[in-house]
Fold this protein.
Amino acid sequence: MLKIENLSIEVEQKRIIEDFSLSIPKDEIHVIMGPNGTGKSTILKTIMGHPDYKVTSGSIYYNNERIDTLQANEIATRGVFLVEQNPTEIAGVTNAEMLRAALTDRGIKESVFEFNKRLSLSCDRLGIDKSFLHRNINEFMSGGEKKKNELLQIDVLKPSLILLDELDSGLDIDSLRTLSNGLLEYKRETKASILIITHHTNILEYLTPDKVYILNGGRIMMEGGMELANKIEKTGFKGAFSISER
Ligand code: ADP
Ligand code: MG
């Protein structure tokens, strides 16, 4: 369970997020929508422990442990996984090498044979070509391939909280469906929680949200269910903000 309490965040001495609170129970999907530049990615990067983002007040708890004081790798080993809008390319490190190191970090020690079997199962399940395993992380991959590659990492590392920053950007309809269904199956099996940032309701038709928040100027302006996301899609943010404010 993720619990964010009265969080304020600064980047380069500029206040980006103000008094932001949210709780995501196990097995729930929550969504943050909001205009560009309003601080959505800032929230996800802060949860993940990015050093540029300073928590100036409030706190973040994951499974009753305070995590806003931890380093990114410590947060990752506690089961949090961020899929960035533009996943980073890492030259010189293959997917398989990174996954082996990440599993070791999580206390999983297994033979090369067992490890290869684990990776091979994940590739089969997700319909990912095994040649991906020996490619450098996200290097020379299309936008869609990078996101598929991130899903492979999720399937192997088994996070319990997945943060998706505009997963749908740059994906064609078929890739969006395949990836969303893969995530949905993963959630069914593991009861993972998911926090989604998106501008569009397409992805929410697969990953039906339990809660939707509208962020503006670093604050939550509105919250509701899927009906709120549908309303925003029709009226745009400006229309919605003039109708009601939290
Ligand atoms: P969103 O994801 O909602 O579009 P962001 O969280 O990326 O918005 O950005 C919110 C604001 O914080 C923007 O004004 C952006 O320029 C600023 N910002 C975000 N990250 C940084 C950074 N690393 N350095 C300086 N400014 C940043
Ligand atoms: Mg963003």
Q: What stands out?
A: The chain has one domain: 2-245. The chain has a mean pLDDT of 94. The longest helix spans residues 173-190. The chain has eight helices and twelve strands.
